[in-house]
Amino acid sequence: MYNNKDVLNEDIIIAMKNMLDNNNHYAHKFRMARDKLQSLIVSDLKLKLIYDRQSDGRLYNLPNTAEVVALIVGDEHTGNHRDIIIEKQTGLLKRINELHPAYLPLQYPLLYPRGEDGYRPDIPHKDHPNIHAAKRKNVTIREYFCYRLQSRNNEAQTRLHSRRLFQQWIVDGYCMIESQKLNYVTQHQQQLRVDKYINLNVCNNAPETLGNEKGKRVILSSSFVGSQRYMEQLYFDGMTICGHIGFPDLFLTLTCNLVWPEIQKKVRKSNLTPHDCPGVVSRIFKMKLNQLMNDLKRGHVFGPILGFIYTIEWQKRGLPHAHILIFLQLANKYPNPEDIDKIISAEIPNKYTDPELYQIISKHMIHGPCGLPNRSAPCMADGKCIRFFPKKFNEATIVDRDGFPVYRRTNDGRTVQKHGIELDNRFVVPYSPQLLLKYRTHLNVEWCNQSTSIKYLFKYINKGSDRITTSIVNVQNQNGRQHQVDDEIKQYLDCRKQGNTIGRLIWVPPSTGELFYMRMMLSSAKGSQSFKDIITVDNVVYHTFREACFAKGFLGSDQEFLGALREANTWGTPHFLRKLFVNLLFMNTMERPEYVWQQTWRWMTDDVVFNHKSQGYAANPHQNKLIYNEMAYDKEVLATEFNRCYHSMTDKQASIFDNIMCVVASQLGGVYFLYGYGGTGKTFMWKTLSSAVRSNGGIVLTVASSGIASLLLPGGRTTHSKFAIPVLATQNSTCNIHQESDLAELLQRTKLIIWDEAPMCHKFSFEALDKSLKDIMYNDRPFGGKVIVFGSRSDIVHVSLNASYIWDHYIGDGKVGQANNGHCEITIPYEFLIMDFEDPIQAIVDATYPYLLQNYNNADFLQKRAILASTKDVVDKINDYVLSLIPSDEKEYCSADSVDKSDELLNPTFGVLTPEFLNTLKTSGIPNHKLRIKIGTPIILLRNLDQANGLCNGTRLIVTKLGTNVVEAEVITGPNVGYKTYIPRMNMSPSDSPWPFKLIKRQFPFIVSFAMTINKSQGQSLAHVGLYLPNPVFCHGQLYVALS
């Protein structure tokens, strides 16, 4: 049609015009339309792609490749009709509906040159003796377009060779199909029984409620592919898989490659380009994807897998691609950096020893160029690459503190040239060499963070219907019509076959009332045979499902706190009841504390009249209670203790003591760091310093970074509680201390601050105190000119104190902070290893807890023993095994899990997270959903409850009584051994959530402590320790802490 100068060829146009005039009976109708248009002034119309937008970039970003755009105009009032309107010579208008046989020949006269009919609803199916009677007698619009899309040797290929016109015809056909499906849903609301959805609204902001103002609601059910409910059901399926087999381990992205030989062979035959044959591209891509999934499932490229989830996307970026999540079996989790290097590489191969892989990497796995070499790259935003390229060089693969892999990218000098720019390993997209050599396309492979890979699933559920596709597999016959075979024997056997399926109850929101609570009970009620079985908890039959959920612990209510106080009232004195009630207040767990107080205050005040002895109390000479408490020490006792400690010091200890005391006496200020291995006398030094200052009437503030460490200090407190440091400090954080407040006055009069276990805090915590003391003391010297002594073991965490600007001025002998490559291997002596065993968990338990059955209720036996492991999952396995050995009755407590309401307002998707999925989430710092406990079990606290009585995060106790809503336990470690307390359930959330929402878990704030993580063991005093490492420890300092 075009000549060599891209000008329309007039001869071809005339020939086509004559062909249509002679053969197409619709041609004269266009002539009449032409005459009418020539008689009027018609405005030009434009379709503009908006560049400056506030919408989701994945939905509305500009295309990177040439594509056909479909614009569907209409709503429920217009009926979504897509019409061609022509005017008769009489002046009347004639509307041609999309289902009219004349629609397609009028819209595409070159594809229907003889004016043959397009689609019409009454095209009958062809009779065939081998095909059973179909449910539909006529051809659907989808079947029509599927038929016309195929290439047949006995038919002309005009339509398939029409290039962009063919693409427009495909898009138009797709829009016609979708319009008819939507129109059917609109016209058959009653038959589809979507009225049931009216009661399933999640919140007022849900999309289906936006039509309330018009007085009519049309529901798009979950069976409609691409609808919101359809995507929610896929999402719930994914959540169920995660809850059943855990979080995914690998994340793959497979992208179509237009130069695949299969595609090129097909398109060259027709003298077309791949863009002109979308059907060929899609089918071959699906074949490649099927082959990849077969390699993963049956070829065990990464080892045996438990499951997978994948989505296929056709985005505006050009080519189809698939995102795949792989769930590996436990033995193939690739937990260590060395294991990750075996399957994933982020480096350019050697050009000479591996030229084939080098060429593939150069073409498909190099990002950019972007950054300084190309600031106009599509991935650049605000001068930075949104994909965070170029990466940093890294000598070895590591897993960072957040659990994400940082792949090995050595500075080996290897480069590739892309668009005339030399790019090195910093621009390589991670890949699997084995898969890349086979599929020769962009195939990204990533190791997933086990706790945060859930974000990928949220990403896909929120992306929109044009990017979520379903794969329809025809298991009957090629034309898609199912054969109905009445084989009763086969049906009987099929129904008894055990398949690899995971069951899931249909989700319903809380607004459905008893239906929602029944679903919650069904998720935990095993073997129920009647409704009565479902509402029975601990042999008590409740009246409603909601009451049963409360009894099971699935719901949070003030009734459980009333029950806790009621149970504690039968066990202990009013003094302990008051402490329990105060703990409930501090935990901010009760919804109506005044109601709980009104119901229980008589139990807590029985002894007030008899114990009230206010007369004779010494008057407080200080209006500031904080100063009064710090000055209330017995100076004579402290002087005696100081003399005893000072004369017991070594020469080096005495030298350190004298230097610090000279600075305290001069009040010139100074910062010291005292470090040493465990048992070298740091705690002894703290006692000597504090007794020396306090015996002379001075104020010493002794703090530690953890509650358990503060118990070892005289008058110790945690740093966050004493100095009001934010829990999640940032670079600009300051302490919550106001000028002229009681705490500010206390700090002004303080002579010495002792901060133990300093490196356990982030450097921002030290800097926050430094800035606050400078402000309070009106002094720009470090820490406002105060004398402060930091202490720790000899290992120093680089993100902590010595990474702060404060450290630059106070390095003493220069031996700390020297450069190292960060890698070392430790060989444990043979005599410390358990070599002869069949079950490793049984072996470590027998070695650490010998004669357990004779001593399981002996506090002295349990308080000095523990098994240490690197991960929470391993710790749970050990605790479950030991707990199963103890011959006493077990009680199981279930948590009530929910998502923070503020997160639900920001993202309504979080509101549809099922309770059973939330129950499966595990992370450090909070207990699991199911907490199994027996009397005599050692436990460890996860929150600070009562620091004055030694109930801190890390305190170990032994369970003495088990109630329904409260647990009685006795302290077995620290200076408060023997102290009994009552522990209720409380609301807990991880301080740094690994998920895109804030999880609120109401559960008892402790876990079983036969075994504990290495990090949790810091500050514990243990005489017998078993170290269980099924996998190498690669987090910084873990092995040191375990062995120290």
From TrEMBL:
MF (Gene Ontology): 5'-3' DNA helicase activity; ATP binding; hydrolase activity
Annotated ranges, domain Helitron helicase-like: 144-326
Keyword line: ATP-binding, DNA damage, DNA recombination, DNA repair, Helicase, Hydrolase, Nucleotide-binding
InterPro entries for the chain: DNA_helicase_pif1-like_DEAD, Helitron_helicase-like, P-loop_NTPase, Pif1-like_2B_dom
One Pfam assignment: Pif1_2B_dom
Catalytic activity: ATP + H2O = ADP + phosphate + H(+)
GO biological process per UniProt: DNA recombination; DNA repair; telomere maintenance
UniProt domain DNA helicase Pif1-like 2B: residue ranges: 916-962
Cofactor requirements of the protein: Mg(2+)
Superkingdom, taxonomy of origin: Eukaryota
Domain DNA helicase Pif1-like DEAD-box helicase: 649-809
Classification via Gene3D superfamilies: P-loop containing nucleotide triphosphate hydrolases
Catalytic activity, EC: 5.6.2.3
Stored PANTHER family: ATP-DEPENDENT DNA HELICASE (PTHR10492:SF78), PTHR10492
Family according to the record: Belongs to the helicase family.
Protein name, entry field: ATP-dependent DNA helicase
Native source species: Glycine max
Taxonomic lineage of the native organism: Eukaryota, Viridiplantae, Streptophyta, Embryophyta, Tracheophyta
